[in-house]
């Protein structure tokens, strides 16, 4: 929407007179694109089938898709890592509470008395192998363990001692291995030897005897117990690894549940997939913690200010069939930044198209007048009720930006906004101002916005990062499409600064701490004049004098002959200071760096 580069006389601005302050209407052509620029309509970025599948899974349709796991890992990896570390720490703490145990093993060989014939030897061997399992079970019986307790003077019971003793027989052998666990390595070996001796005594007593009273079964210790050098329990590595694995698994489960339950919009792909609309711009969180920070006024070279200029530029190419000269700015719910976007967009538009009117159409919770430091009791409702004209009700906010506050909050805001008086007001201001921005109530809070949808050139929906729910956004867009409203796009508001740098990384800080200006282009050339005659203007806010604007004059004398001509020159990158020349005809020529 830049102006033509040829010199022309500025069009006189509307200014209320001192008696009656009648509104002088004027006609302006719709904003045009820069010369040579191709006006290609903005379309929503293409969303891959994978993104649509992920969104569908989040909405609860169909089974779990593998991409859901990847999305959960990418978004919730801190939760998974933290729970994994907590699991490992808990396991390590549990390990430290366990007693240190040593184990020692003694082995005995079971044999029978030798026979005189081969058949006797075979029978004896079969007898030993058949009864070796029974002898191993005797190792933990009271008849074996009680003598051990008495001999060693142990303070434990038979059952307590049996719980730390295990006996095993390797397959197809007549060997019995007795293993003892104890917190003292020397005592573990001593108990193992004592149990083997006691078992040998008991087996010889209960085994058959020969004619000479010799026991038929004999046990011989073949491997005495050794004092262990290192404990076998607890296994710290295994316990910590198990805790880590359990924590990671729990973290993944919680991440998937969180991903399914958290339906907040977090990316442009989600915006596009849900709404089917292009993203006009992404605005980073401002440096001020105070809500409603006006970037275009507080820091016109900030990243946030460039975001609103990006929105302005995208609106130029929103539609090649129909120019956009008036928009409504709304959101799905309250607190998403629609009023801040409306105010900054109006200031950004004033840099291009000239005179801009900002209307506070939120008659339920108006905030524009308070943020601008203007009187809020006189405004839109005053005009709609026929008490004042538009020219009498508007207030000056910036050099080329007027504000029509909400006025007194009515009892029937929906009826006022949908009345014929509102339609007539919009028709009047559209012919008087170059661009009109209307801040409207949230779509899900009231139906007031739906009545204004057809009275303007389009609607912009503001979506707050990680605040707006997907269901809320889909419902809001659906309500606008139900009334066949013209949706221009969405604005992604208050995204984290690291994400915003992906869009506006060009605007780095110079060594002196001030933001670096973007490279100048012929389309960025702006104009200024020195009016030969001051003209009346709408009521001006106290802070209006502090606003610097590079636009054309707000008002000139009705005689175009007395108006100075403006010669525009392109910006140069080599100079950073403005050079002002005055031509013989009295025109002001500005060479901007």
Automatic annotation (TrEMBL):
InterPro entries: AAA_dom (IPR025669), Bact_polysacc_biosynth/exp (IPR050445), LPS_length_determ_N (IPR003856), P-loop_NTPase (IPR027417), Wzc-like_C (IPR005702). One of its GO terms (cellular component) is plasma membrane. Residues 329-472 form the AAA domain. This is non-specific protein-tyrosine kinase. It comes from the Bacteria. Pfam families: AAA_31 (PF13614), Wzz (PF02706). Residues 1-61, 510-593 are annotated as: Disordered. PANTHER family: FERRIC ENTEROBACTIN TRANSPORT PROTEIN FEPE, TYROSINE-PROTEIN KINASE. Residues 534-545 have a biased composition (Low complexity). It comes from Orlajensenia leifsoniae. It is an enzyme of class 2 (transferase). Belongs to the CpsC/CapA family.
